[in-house]
UniProtKB/TrEMBL annotation:
InterPro entries: GPCR_Rhodpsn, GPCR_Rhodpsn_7TM, Olfact_rcpt, Olfactory_GPCR
Gene: LOC116546629
KW Glycosyltransferase (keyword) present: no
CC annotations in GO: plasma membrane
Organism annotation: Sapajus apella (Brown-capped capuchin)
Family annotation (PROSITE patterns): G_PROTEIN_RECEP_F1_1, G_PROTEIN_RECEP_F1_2
PANTHER family, A to Z: OLFACTORY RECEPTOR
Membrane topology type: Multi-pass membrane protein
Any coiled-coil regions, as ranges: none
Protein name: Olfactory receptor
Upper taxonomic lineage: Eukaryota, Metazoa, Chordata, Craniata, Vertebrata
UniProt record similarity statement: Belongs to the G-protein coupled receptor 1 family.
Key words, A-Z: Cell membrane, G-protein coupled receptor, Membrane, Olfaction, Receptor, Sensory transduction, Transducer, Transmembrane, Transmembrane helix
Length: 245
C-alpha cells in the first residue's frame, strides 16, 4: 500500500480532524512576550497612522488628485488592511495567552493576506507604469492615464490578486489535517500549513511555485523594465536642472 494511501483518511471520517491550530508566535518566554507586544503595537499604530494620514491627504487635498497619488492612496489602504489581517490577532493572543486559531479562521486569514498582499504587488506595477508614461511619454500621458484607465488598473489588480488568493485557499482546503497542529509562526501561511498536512502537498507546492512565479515574477519584471526606461530617459537629458526635475 502506498504512502499516500496510508495518509488518506478512512472512509466515513472527517477529511480534516484538526479543528484548530496553535500559533507559537515569535517568542515563548513571557517576559520577552511583553516586549514583543509593546514593539509590535507601536509599529502597528505608527503604520496605521502613517498610511491613514496619506490616504486622508490624498482625499482632502485637490492638488493631490493625480494618478500617482490615486495609486498611492490605494496602496496606503491596502497596507492598512494587510497589516490588520495579521498583527491585531497576534497582539490579542499575546494579551490573552491563548494561542489557538480555528481552522476556518486560519483559512480566512490566509485568503485575505494573499488577497491584500497580491493587490499591493500589482498596484506597485501600476505605479511604475504611471511613472513610465509620465517621464517617457509626457505628451500622451493625460490620455493614456485617464481616470478610466486608473480605475481599470486598480480593478485588474484586485481581480488578479483575488484569483490568486482563492486558488491557494481552495487548494489548501482540500488537504487533510489529522495530527500535528502547531504552527511555528504568528499567522497562517502556506509553507507552515503544508508541513502539518497528513496528505500529499506536492500539487499544492507546485501550484504555489507556478502561480507565485506568475503573480510575483511578472509584476517584478514589468517594474524593472519601466524603471530602466525611466532611468534611460533621465540620462538622456543633458541639463542638470532637467535631470533633477
Amino acid at each position: 500500500m502506498s504512502l499516500q494511501k496510508l495518509m488518506e483518511p478512512e472512509a466515513g471520517t472527517n477529511r480534516t480532524a484538526v479543528a484548530e491550530f496553535i500559533l507559537l508566535g515569535l517568542v515563548q518566554t513571557e517576559q520577552v512576550q511583553s516586549v514583543v507586544f509593546v514593539l509590535f503595537l507601536f509599529a502597528y499604530l505608527v503604520t496605521i497612522g502613517g498610511n491613514l494620514s496619506i490616504l486622508a491627504a490624498v482625499l482632502v487635498e485637490p492638488k493631490l488628485h493625480t494618478p500617482m497619488y490615486f495609486f498611492l492612496g490605494n496602496l496606503s489602504a491596502l497596507d492598512v488592511g494587510c497589516i490588520t489581517v495579521t498583527v491585531p490577532s497576534m497582539l490579542g493572543r499575546l494579551l490573552s495567552h491563548k494561542r489557538t486559531i480555528s481552522y476556518d479562521a486560519c483559512l480566512s486569514q490566509l485568503f485575505f493576506f494573499h488577497l491584500l498582499a497580491g493587490t499591493d504587488c500589482f498596484l506597485l506595477t501600476a505605479m511604475a507604469y504611471d511613472r513610465f508614461l509620465a517621464i517617457c511619454r509626457p505628451l500622451t500621458y493625460s490620455t493614456r492615464m485617464s481616470q478610466t484607465v486608473q480605475r481599470m488598473l486598480v480593478a485588474v489588480s484586485w481581480v488578479c490578486a483575488f484569483s490568486n488568493a482563492l486558488t491557494h485557499t481552495v487548494a489548501m482546503s482540500t488537504l487533510n489535517f489529522c495530527g500535528p497542529n502547531v504552527i511555528h509562526h504568528f499567522y497562517c501561511d502556506l509553507p507552515q500549513l503544508f508541513q502539518l498536512s497528513c496528505s500529499s502537498t506536492q500539487l499544492n507546492e507546485l501550484l504555489l511555485f507556478a502561480v507565485g512565479f506568475l503573480m510575483a515574477g511578472t509584476p517584478m519584471a514589468l517594474i524593472v523594465i519601466s524603471y530602466i526606461h525611466v532611468a534611460a530617459a533621465v540620462l538622456r537629458i543633458r541639463s542638470a536642472e532637467g535631470r533633477k526635475k
